[in-house]
Amino acid sequence: MLITRIEFEGAAGHLTVEKGPASPTIRIDSILRNPEKGQQAWKTWQLPSAVSDDDLFQIAIEAQQRTDGGRGTNSMVHDYFRELQRFQD
Question: What pTM was computed for the model?
Fold first, then answer.
């Protein structure tokens, strides 16, 4: 089985993670539902699929915050991290 796309819905926004079957790049799009003044409504990351766990974990922290609307517990961040790891080479 090959997973090429995952979508997350949270209280504050939407997150899409995708990587084509032969692509060397992971694309992550984050959209906030109701951004506050000065807050970036749309954010995109494009990373090599060979991204390190440390770098991917930092993205998981921000992705969780943007999707859920606030800083989550360590286990919440790890839930996002594990899903993002599906796209690593």
Answer: 0.90
Q: Cα–Cα distance between 66 and 55 in angstroms, integer?
A: 17
For 4, 20, 23, 61, the CA distances from 68, given in Å and listed in that order, are 23, 26, 28, 11
- Identify whether the C-beta of residue 74 lies closer than 8 Å to the C-beta of residue 64: no
- What residue type is assigned to position 4 of the chain? T
8 Å CB contact between 86 and 6:
yes
Do 66 and 13 meet the contact criterion of CB atoms below 8 Å apart? yes
Q: Does residue 56 register a pLDDT over 90?
A: yes
Query: What local confidence, expressed as pLDDT, does residue 27 receive?
Result: 97
CA distance 62 to 72: 10
